[in-house]
Amino acid sequence: MNKQLPSCEIAVLMTCHNRRATTLRGLQNLFAQDLPDGCALKVYLTDDGCTDGTGDAVRQEFPEVKVLSGDGNLFWTGGTQLAWDAARPADFYLWLNDDVALRPNAFKVLLETYRAAEDPMAIVVGSTCDPQQGKTCTGGMQRRSWYDVRVIDPSDVTQPCDTFNGNIVLIPVVVEERIGGLDEAYTHFFADGDYGLRARKQGVELLLAPGHLGECSLNPIANSSFDSSLSFSERWRRMMGPKGYRPPRQWWAFVRAHAPRPKVFYWAVPYLLFFLESLSHGRLRLRRNVQRPMKVS
Q1: Which tens digits make up the pLDDT trace of 179-215?
Q2: Topology (CATH) of 8-215
Q3: What's the DSSP call for residue 152?
């Protein structure tokens, strides 16, 4: 993987909402990257209605970043798509969560993995790990069945995956021209996985790059729909919200696009499990979620 890489322009797509210090730290790591010769970055950041001065702070500290403005209702999907629309044209587009601390060689590994595939129709995914424990948090996913979805533990070789988390994802322009952008049916939770599944259906190869390319922490269970200390009504509200675990219309869009038949059954199961779990007052944990991590044999 030491072959000379061709010149390229990479548009980095980011979105943020009211975590100024985190966003600035993510950008500091981004601009500290050891880039391959001939590669240049363009960075587009959607400030989705921040009230903590994130956008102004980025403009001051990183004037090379193009800061776009949202109204606070774009969330990850709308904010990333706004940045994507502004970034064209570019040779590659990199989805990058603002809370990811990239490792210095991340871009080199992503681009070397892409070139080694010898297939222009390939998406390359980067794994992240917890900064304290070093365990894999996000990256490529393997779907063994509808309810058996697992994050893959990266190794020292490239691995195939079925879909991915959107924390670090490199998309070449030829893939974007075939697949298009993110589906506006989703605000946050399903958009990245949906994109990967749509790409696979259209013959795009999904590749998990070797090693961990960044660090980030998983979203905490506290104050989420999984937090058993909250009231039933509050957990239900959070599950149904735009960043929730199962907003009904968005969940139906995902099920309709990707689930086996009978689709209504698969749509209804998470809500049934939520009620059963609530009746047990937290003693049972029935809702399935993505398992982390796993090794691909």
Answers
A1: 999 999 999 999 999 999 999 999 999 999 999 999 9
A2: Spore Coat Polysaccharide Biosynthesis Protein SpsA; Chain A (3.90.550)
A3: E
